[in-house]
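Repro case for the chain-ordering regression, as requested:
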Amino acid sequence: MGATGQAAGRAATIPAATTRRRESPAARVGRLVAHAPLNLFLLLVGVLWLVPTLGLLFTSLLPASDIAQEGWWKVVAHPSVATFDNYRAIFENSAITSALWTTVQIAVGNTVLLVVVASLAGYAFAWLEFPGRDWLFVVVIGLLVVPLQVALIPIFSLYQSTGLFDTVLGLILFHVAFGLPFGIFLMRNFFVGIPKDILESARIDGASEWRIFTRLILPLGLPAIGALAIFQFLWTWNDLIVALTFGRNTQPLTVAIFSQTRQFGSNIDLIAPASFLSLAIPLVVFLLFQRAFVRGLLAGSVK
Amino acid sequence: MEASAVTAGGGGGARRSRERLVPLLFLLPALVFLGVWLVYPTVRTIVRSFFDRSGDQFVGFDNYKALFTTDTLTTAIENNVLWVAVVPAFVTAIGLVFAVLTERIRWSTGFKTAVFMPMAISLFAAGVIWRVMDEKDPAQGTVNASIKVVKDAFGGGGVLTNAQGSTPQLVGSPQKGFVLRTPVRPGGTAAMGLTAIPPAEVPSSAAQAVAPRPQAGAIDGVVWRDFKPGGGRPGVVEPGEDGLPGVTVELRRASGGGVVASTSTAEDGSFSFGGVRPGSYRVGIASSTFSEPFTGVSWLGPKLITPAIMIAYVWVWAGFAMVIIAAGLAAISREVLEAARTDGATEWQVFRRVTVPMLAPVLSVVFITMIINVLKVFDIILSIAPASSQDDANVIALAMWRTSFGGVNDFGLGSAIAVFLFVLVIPVLALNVRRFRREV
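-- result from build under test --
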C-alpha cells in the first residue's frame, strides 16, 4: 500500500506531522471532532465504492437455488448459506477453464512482446540519431488516440485470408500493435531522462548499441518497463471487443462470460463467479503493483 | 574531389551506413506493427467507407448519409453527445473533490485504493457488477433495495398495501382510508379489524393483539389483523391474531371537520388518544397507512438505461481522475496555499481562487482523456444493457461493431461509422501533437 498518489499523501502528511508534535491532547480531540464529518463522509463514499464489487462477490457465493431470486446481502445476514459450489462448478466447466487459459496466454504473450518492441523503439527515439526522428515520433503520438474500431474491418479481412483469424497469435499481435503508441511514448520519455554521460562513456568505451541497450538501458528502464507491463497486462486481460471480433472458438474469459449474458437471469450462477474470477486476477495484480500502475497512468494520461 | 570523397569515405561510408542501419533495426519491429495494424487499416477503412456492403460498388457518401438518417445510428450519436456532455465533467469534478478532501484525512491511501480499485476491473466485468446492482426487483437489486429502505424509513411508503374491514363496522378502502361507523365518546373503545392483508406485509415486529380496555377521558383502541389460520371470529381479538404496528389512526369530530388528533399504533396494534374533550368522535385509519408496493425502478429499461450505465462508468473512472489530480495537487507549492490562508482567505476561496486555477492544466488533461474514453465507450454498454434496451443505449463505438459484426455485417456502413469516430478524436490528436511540439 502507500502507493496510490503516494506523492500527494506524503506532501499532505508532512505539515500534519509537525503540528501533531506540538498539539495538546485537548487540541487533538478538538481537531478529531472537527474532522469527524469529513471522515464520516469519506468513509461513506469509500464503502459506497466497494459495495458493487463486494456485491458481486457475495452474489457469487449464494447457493444456485437462491442466486436468481435473492440479493447478495443474504450472504451477509446468513453467512451459513455461503457456498463455493458455484466456483467448483465453473472450475469443472471446460469452457470456462479453457477460456481462463486462453486469457493467460493472450495477456502474458502480448505483454512480453510489447515490452520488447516498445523498448527497442523507445531507445531509438531517445538516443539514436536518424533523419526524420522527431517527425516519426509525432506520428506515433498521433496514433495514440486512434480508436481501434478503425482497424477492425481491414484486420478482420486480413486475418481471414492469412489464417490468423480465431488464433491466440492473431489476438496477441493486434494487442501489441495497439499498445505500441503508448508503449513507445512511455519508454522514450523514460529513456530520455537517463543521464547522457552514462551513454556517452559506454559509447566511447566502444560498446555496441545493442550492448548498451541490453546491459545499460534495459536495467535502468525497469521502472518504466514494469509500469508498461502492468498496464498492458490489465488492458488486454480485460479486453472484450478485440477477442469478440477476431475469435470464434478462441475465447478469453470476457467473451466466454459475454456469451452467457443473453440469459442473464438464468445463467447468473455461472456469470457471477466467472466474472469475479476474471476480475480477481487484475485486482491482485493491481494491489500488488499499485505504485507502478499509477506511475504509468501519470506518465501517459493522454491515451 | 569526388574521388577523394569516395576514397576517404571508404571505411567511413560503411560505418555511416551501419549507423543508419542500427536505428532502423531498433525501429523495424515497431514500424511493422504500426504499419500493418494501424496505418494500413486506417487508410483501408477510409476507402472502404465509400463502397457498398459487398465492397464492389462505389457509393460515394451514401454510407455517411445512412449514418445520419438511420434511427439506431442517430440514437447512437445523440447518446454519445450526451455522454460527452455529462460524463467527463462529472468524473473530473468528482476526482477533484476527492483529491482535495483526501488531503485532509489520515487514511487517504485506503480511501484512494477503494475508489481507484474499479480501474483494475474490466469495463465488461464492471458492467456485470452493475447489472446485478441495477436488477429491478428490490429483493435482488441493490440500488432498488436501498431506495426501498429509504422510502420505508421516511414513511414515504405506508406499512401496508391492501386491506379491508373485517366487519361491516369498518368502512372505506386503502385509497380513502377506513372509518368506524359507530361514533365513539371519551371512555369508549375502538376495535378496528383488518383482513385481506398479504402475510408478507405484516411487520416482523407485530405482537399478539390486545383488546382495548375503556379508560376515562380517553379513547383507546386496537388495529389488528383479524384473521388467523382457520379464520377466527370476525370482530373479536383472539389469541393468534397479531396487532398491526405503525398504522396511522385519526380522530375526527363526528359532526364533521378536520383531524383532531392522530397517532400511530404500537407493536400489539394498540393506540390511545388521551385527554379527549367530551363529545362524539369518529375513529379511522388514515390512507397514508397504505401505499402502492414499491416494485423497483426499471434501471435497465429503455428510459433509464443510459443514465444507469453512466453511473457505472463514473464509478469506474472517478479513481483515475482522483489519482491524476492528487498528483497535480501534490505538485502545487504549499507556500502559495498557506500564504492565501494567512491572508485570511476561507477554505472555499483558497479552493476556488488558488487550487483550481493552479490545477487547470491537470484538470484539462483529465477532462480531455475522459472525452476520448467516452467517445470509445463500448464494453460496459454491451454488458449492462439487456438485448431489449441495447438500441436505446447505443453509442457510436457499439453501433460500429454491431453494424459490422453483430449480424448486419455491413462493412461499408461499419467503415463509415469507424471513420466518423476517428474524425471525432482528431482534435484531441492535434492537441497532443501540439503539446509535444511545444515540449521539444
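Ordering looks correct now. Chain A touches chain B through 112 residues (CB under 8 Å).
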